[in-house]
User: Fold these one by one.
Assistant:
Number 1:
Amino acid sequence: MANRRKQVPENVPGEFFVDSTCIDCDTCRQLAPEVFAEAAEYSFVERQPATAEERRAALRALIACPTASIGAAAGAAREAVSDFPLQLEDEVYYCGFNSEKSFGGNSYFVRHPEGNWLIDAPRYVDHLARAFERWGGVRYIFLTHRDDVADAARYAGRFGSTRIIHRYELSSQPDAERVLDGRDAIELAPGFLAIPTPGHTRGHCALLYRDYFLFTGDHLWWSRARRQLTASRSVCWYSWPEQQASIELLRRYTFDWVLPGHGQRVKLSETGVAQALPISA
């Protein structure tokens, strides 16, 4: 629970605040950019919500925050818990409830008639588990890489899920049910294509769903400042040249959505940016 006595000095006065436990994961700035902004090493409340819609977005950010670093009026968070999983488009949802174990990484849920998918994992909370159960459980858990597994094992245990991860990332889930090898793309199920994208880590993989949704893990994301797709050498743990090559590899594929573990998600067709433009790295 956020502590107002520990709030960061940049907060503007009002209901919402951020305290000094913030880890600067960007989750709140993705969900409520009108309210939260970035300081040197943490987020802060730049402007209190001015509309009901902005307040709802700020409450979603409070719920998703992996370190409970956002505070508001007592009991206010309950108003927005039911928003999660948050629908992005069609059968694809953002889970919320980001986990500190994955440094606040995003995770996603795909409702599918042949079995539902979880892409990377949120923290384990009963609210999400019950929602997944109402929708038929979780048949597959696709893990892009070792950093963002969070509570995948616990969700797999509850639902009997098949966890899918590359062999080079297996140390994070040594008992995973399906292990990928090599660097060739592989169809995991109709419409689901695993694409090895080494660079950030050696066995990093992206998941392309029906040539429309690309789940990119920590490989690629949307830069709000540059207004283009980007990656970062400073958070590349394995090989920057290989990450650049993996970015080039993605030009072979068609997708509208970029859904990262870290960084801003974006629907390219709504940004006015043609996908053929160069990707900044």
Number 2:
Amino acid sequence: MSGHLPVMVGEVVAQIVPMDGGVYLDGTFGGGGYTQAILEAARCTVWAIDRDPEAIQRGAVLAARYSGRLHLLQGEFGDMVALLASAGVTSLNGIVLDLGVSSYQLDDPARGFSFRFDGPLDMRMGNHGQTAADLVNGLNERELADVLYELGEERASRRIAKAIVAARQQAAITTTGRLAAIIRSVLPPDRSGHDPATRSFQALRICVNDELGQIERALTQGMQLLGPNGRMVVVSFHSLEDRIVKRVMAEATGRAPAPSRHDPRGLLESRQPRFQKLTARAMRPTDTEVLQNPRSRSARLRAMQRIASPEAATP
């Protein structure tokens, strides 16, 4: 597991509560940190999904160590129902999702995720589809600005998009180093110490991998797969991710705000919630963990549990 530190792993396992004979899904295998912790906590089975073929390849060592108990599936976690159905799995005792990019991907210059290294402008978590270079060189100025603003929450999106379009007229932008330099040339240093390219790189990565759409599909499908008392634990790393998780869990647990009296949905009979919250609010990493692993500082953990029967629901 060198090169990858699973975030809030103790808190994740405490919320999942692995039990002997249970069947669990790690929807974002990555370095296998959560998977290994679950397998160590009980004599259970874990199915692990990752769209990155390199992650699946790395996981072969762990699968051999837990022979018969760990099964790896290459694919997108937003397709978990179909992936698991193909393996004959239709019900789970728990699901864990660690959203965003893995340390392995960030730290490999050849993957093109980070502005800290110069490499090809790729950013694909898998091995197919459009790259970040395709977006940077193909979108028009307005489309590019919209991506940076909506997915990176970048206030200077129009200024950056204009600079990118001007630069690509000289030569196509194909490396992370050149893109980062273009962004830095039009933005002052961030007072927080964050690189000016941070939000733009995040936006392009999210767009390339359809990360928000994947999260929506994974949460919906995960709820379908959880059996009675099954638990879902999600760790997110920025506001766009956490906003989706918070909303979906609020709706599932009956805690979503009531519709306006002018909204026709308010006339519909309210349904008993199918899930109950396990975390009243998002859990945060400890100060000690943040010191040991600075990448954990923005992590938010939310969890919920399927109610065994509607009658067991609490108001």
